[in-house]
Amino acid sequence: MSSQILAQKERKLFSELLQAYEQKQLSKGRKIADQILKKHPQHGETMCMKGLVMVHLGEREAGISLIKDGMRKDLQSHICWHVWALVQKGEHNYEEALKSYTMALKIDKDNFNIIRETSILQTHTRQFDVLLESRIHMLRLRPYSRVHWIGVALAYKLAGNTAEARRYLDHMEDFLRNVPPRDTEYGELVFFHVRVLEELGEFQEALTLLDKKAKDRMLVDRPAIAECRARLFGKLKSAADADNAQREEWTEAAEQSWTELIDQNPDNQDYYKGFLANAGIDLDSLTDESRTKALGILEEFSSRHPKTNTYRRLALKIAEGDKFKELVKPYLERALEKGIPSIFSDVKNLYTDPSKLQSIQDIVEDIRLSVSPNDQVQPSTSADPTYYLWTLYFLAQHYSSLGRYEKALEILHSAMEHTPTLPELYMTKARVLKRAGDSYGAVRAMEEARKLDGQDRYVNTKSGKYRLRAGMINEADEVLTLFTKKGVPANIDLLDMQALHYLTEVGDTHRRLKGYPLALKMYYAIQKLFHNFREEQYDFHLYSLRRSMLGSYVAMLGWEDDLHSHPAYIHAAVWTARIWILLYDDPSIIKSLHPPEPSGEMSKKALNKAKKAARKATADTSQDYDDASSQKVRAKQNEDKGLEAPTGKDDDPEGLKLVSADDPLEQASKVLGSLGEFGKDDIDVNATMFDVAIRQKKYLKAARELRRAHARDPHHPEVHVRIVQLARTVASVSDVPEPVKSVLDASVAGLKPVEVSLEVFNSQYLQRHSLSASGILASAKVSQMLDTPREEVENLLFTTLTDGVQLRLEDALEILSYLSTIQSPRADEFRIACDARFTLSKVFKSEEEQAVLRRQCIDPRDENEVETVF
Amino acid sequence: MASSVSPALPGRVSFASLTHQNIGTVRKLNSVLFPVKYSDKYYQDILQTEVEPFFYYNDVPIGNICCRLENKELYLTTLGVLAPYRSRKLGSQALQRIIEAASLHNKPQIKRISLHVQVSNGDAKRFYESHGFSEAGIHKNYYKKITPQDAWILEKIIEHGPEQ
């Protein structure tokens, strides 16, 4: 307890102060605190409370410094430590806050509020072992409340002790009385209990509990009951110790549940899969017999649910050969005749099977012939013109997905001649052009679609994206303003709305345009969003338990733990690291980013003006907010600002400070470290980690990452280049102590046979991959590393243009960029050759030509509407 | 897409009104259907009229019928259907709709619908005649940039029932 004793009158005042704070009467609290401090100017707890009130009132710095002073006066007070923990929590410094709470608990060990706060922080920081102690402590203090029993069970479950969780749940089941029927919170608890039993393999008991509670009308969620039963019967069946009669009974019961589920929602594919699995059909390893059986079962649903397509779609996945053709034909005909625009994206994942791809192509080509307009036929008997139209639309997407861009465009043009008013045709044209390397034509085509229907969200979003792909950032924001708040710049509002796809595209665009500071800023903004997602779970720790939303809550914790496996996060992290590496390798990039001092009077003025405009654009909103809030402060002195540390204004809108960090490799390593184990199966991540580690001279780490990548794909071009890099580095370093050196040697030996020289290793690789452009590029990079004359390296790279070599557009771009990295005089020659090779593309045009194309692609004038007659 | 979408049935016709957002569709239709080009003011005027000017076949925009109100007359500026969708009585349905709308129109009551047809276009004239239009004269040199330059003036007098 506190070492400082107050007189009786002040003691009363102090409890009034605590009350005032609880009720958020901040000014009143401050007055009371001043009153106490007049008498006892050194009273630590009062100083802390006054400081806390001041932080709430927005006097953050003065408040915190007063709290620190107060703590020094009275380290024996739990109140002081509690106040300090609140401030740290407000700064999201959870580990430290937890320590302060622990100190407070040492002094006042049964303080329930503090234990509860502690338990929340322990959950948030995933310290389940100590969480368990807190939960048990809470139960001991308040054993008559259901929620604390659940709290202990949940903590055991989170700590991995499911058996003990079950013991508490069983016990609770025994003593709970008078629960009204259809109480959803109790129902959730029952489902949690069932889940726990299921995880322990107690399927029969789980089922008994579920059925009893369902019968007692305790459970509201009927589909959940049926799903649960179906699943449990399935598991009972596969348990070893059942006899045949029992098995049969369970199979029947499960079938009944699956049927019930399908009848309730015939569009859920999982239910059909469950039904089939129950019938003993393993969809992942089908035999001829089980295939026929599965198709037979699915066919039976057509009388039961004739309007649903879900089982028909599943049947397409299962069927093969003639049976597939027989099933897919009516499926396609029906969709195309009805004019279902999404039919192509519906069936395209069947294309992983080349024979299915061919069947679909043949069938739709046949449809095209049979429904194409024919002058001899009477219109009343001929097919609907829209049938023909959607067939062409399908075929265009089909050929585009196969990389046959000319053919796709040809089909689209005949469709446009037939019906020039269908926006989908222009959107698909845009996509084809984008894939073929003409981002400017893509923007133009998307603009045509927009003119036909300016309020289609999908078109507008795509239009923004395509403009970014064409490097037109401002023009993209112009379209996207349609979606954002009025009066706020689109980019700021889209950040507020956490539009990941937008931020990713903008980051990528800046990067492609070599605007590294802004690219980094965007990638970091993306990482910050994920950090916010993590923060946002905080409020749920208390809430979910209180409302016993246990199933969804446990699932959410798992989701939060996997956040960094999100592709957008990995993408942002990898590119952040790559940019740092780039800046480390070539520090002159940063120097060139700071514009030289302008000499003339005019240019200085112009520069200032531009700066002002840029500041205005980024700061406008925060300015507005600031103005508004300062006005409010004047009106309402008593307003609570909370404990959150205010976010400062962006004082680095161009990202120039950011890129000037003096430890780029450290930064890169930190970002990649945040991926934890999530990136370990991703060759891009492994390769980037390798690149950072080898520059940091952390050879063991580099070797480990390379081994991981090698295990996934030993022939990957990025792996090949790095094997040679590692071998050369290991051979040349001298400052590595012995045990490490032998580990490294062993690593290299595992990646490349010791007896083979690097030159031979490289030529063997080239022989193996002489028909793949990316393989040739990897081999050329290694040659360059091994000091082969540049002419030879160039000649090798030019072989990618010969017939028979598979050269994709992205390979060609990479080769071109590599040629300019090694300052090859033949880079332009390669560019021109690619321009001729990729006929539709515009990426291989010169800078000047591309500038013209960019200007033209959203020219507001329309050729169709100049002259006037009426 | 069409604002009034009903469950898909083959050969379904629906109508939609004109907005700033979809006016590009009308422009596109006019550019392929008619040999003349229209001014921005023309489009501004049709934005003002209340009739739904373009129509869909199976949710695809395939034709338009535009008119403007001049005093107590409705003047039909364009009626056209994309080639693959003709001979399905779609134009008739659209015209019939306009005639009905005109006869129900109050304040002002519409007395007459009129339009111009190029004198070389006998098919179009017969089409309108089958819907109760009749020739009211010839407008010499009506067209400035296409030949023949003369146009028939066709009209239909609207019968109104007793005031309700």
UniProtKB/TrEMBL annotation, chain A:
TPR repeats lie at residues 389-422. Gene3D superfamilies: 1.25.40.1010, 1.25.40.1040. Residues 606-615 have a biased composition (Basic residues). Keywords: Receptor, Repeat, TPR repeat. InterPro entries: NatA_aux_su, TPR-like_helical_dom_sf, TPR_rpt. Residues 636-650 have a biased composition (Basic and acidic residues). PROSITE patterns: TPR. Residues 594-662 are annotated as: Disordered. PANTHER family: N(ALPHA)-ACETYLTRANSFERASE 15_16, ISOFORM A, N-TERMINAL ACETYLTRANSFERASE-RELATED. This is NMDA receptor-regulated protein 1-domain-containing protein.
From TrEMBL, chain B:
This is N-acetyltransferase NAT13. InterPro entries: Acyl_CoA_acyltransferase, GNAT_dom, N-term/lysine_N-AcTrnsfr. GO terms for biological process: mitotic sister chromatid cohesion. PROSITE patterns: GNAT. One of its GO terms (molecular function) is acyltransferase activity, transferring groups other than amino-acyl groups. It holds the Pfam family Acetyltransf_1. Residues 13-159 form the N-acetyltransferase domain. The keyword Lipid metabolism does not apply. The keyword Transcription regulation does not apply. It comes from the Eukaryota. Keywords: Acyltransferase, Transferase. One of its GO terms (cellular component) is NatA complex.
